[in-house]
Amino acid sequence: MSGGSKDFYASMVLNSSCPDAQLPTAMGAPPKKGPQPYRSPCYSSASANPTAISKMTQPFSLPMSLQSPPVLPAHVPRPTVLIATAGHETVDGSKQPGKMYTHNPYASTCTAPPACPSQSTSMESSTFSSPYVTAKVPRTAAMTPPHSRCGSTFPVYAASEGSCCEAGALANMLEDQFLTVLGNIPSTAMSSRGRHLLFNVLRLQHMDKTQMIYDELLPQFNIVALDPHGCQVARTLIEYISTPQMEALVPYIDPQAIRQMATTTQHTRRVLQAIFERHKSDALMPIVEVVTSDCQRLSVTQQGCIAIIRIIEYAKPAQKRMLITALVPLLSTLAKNQFGNYVVQCILKNMDGYVSLKDLVGSFKGHWVELSCDKYSSNVMEKIVGMLKGGLRQRIVNELIFDAAHLQCLLQNSFGNYVLQAVIGSAVNQYEYGLIYDAVTPHLHTSPYGHRIEAKLKSRWDALYSKPTQKRTTPVDAAAK
């Protein structure tokens, strides 16, 4: 009804009851609205009692049909009605129990709804605080398992009576999908969805299915191992096959494919890495021979240096010796490379029984000062200086410290001063320390790093010259008294 029709109807009522009364709007007063309890913080008793309206002194009164509906007081209990809000869905007990996606990535626990209607809790509540908030359902430990007990990062589904049957159905469905790709496994492995399918099949650890995948990938292993998707299937296959199966696979791996696997991406490199991490066999020697033949180029690439490091760490002793022997003459060149210096440091860590310190020092002969002042090779020099003893160490100290020109290079260089500190910190006895101290101290004021070198001299002096305090003996003349 429009505003004009309301005023007309009200004027007719007033004229019939009070002929002399005038409509307030006719006198310029704004029209009054009915009581609106949602705008006032508290409710009056008059609004709750409709009969009290007629007793109030007002300019006019409207019939009951035109008055606002009565408003219940706040203390009157109201029936609780489940109001569907955003993000909530009502659960219908008549629906068949099935999988419900209940994983909440923003919650600390994974909440599972009740499996059947009998487990649900009553939604009725005797108290009501707000008409826009639903009643809270108490959660038990069975309904809300901790997230740590889920044991998986996959979506969590509600438990139901048919969970075991569903697990079997999922396994059967996986097997059915696998059977549909038989005969086309290499191309399946080189696709995104096919890769995940083969992952799940291999993780079943069924020997027959693993053998089927192995048999089909064997002739095309080089192509699959270099594919962005297939390389991950190849790595997973290597992790699950036995060592005899790996030995049978080696002749199928092309030498060029080995070089590409070592340098293309981190995923292809992990295929080569998994071979030596999972299997120990002399039959892997052909792979080591290919890597050894191109070790210098591989050592200066980002992924190739890691491949060589992993072979040195995990290969059998004979394979490790072959690779280290080929790398020793190249150490001075590799030490100055941003990736090759990690290969040199790995050799220093795993050199026992494979290379002598004499051969190691000989590979750096005549390059000590140059390598000590380089950003990457200075790290190698620091480690070597701490390892050497006896005559080999004396040769290095003579070349670095007791040559005035070489000493000045170390004092003025931002990397060489760390090598000088390593020489001071590894002084073996007081005699050697005294010689180094006498050679270095007069030039400290010329070095921008003199305060660091002086602190290292002091700390080494404390380590070499500090002696445990001895008990005071009684003086001879004091005993005579």
Automatic annotation (TrEMBL):
InterPro entries: ARM-like (IPR011989), ARM-type_fold (IPR016024), PUM-HD (IPR033133), Pumilio_RNA-bd_rpt (IPR001313). SUPFAM superfamilies: ARM repeat (SSF48371). The keyword Repeat applies. GO terms for molecular function: mRNA binding. Residues 115-465 form the PUM-HD domain. PANTHER family: RNA BINDING PROTEIN 5, PUTATIVE-RELATED, RNA BINDING PROTEIN PUMILIO-RELATED. This is PUM-HD domain-containing protein. It comes from Leishmania tarentolae.
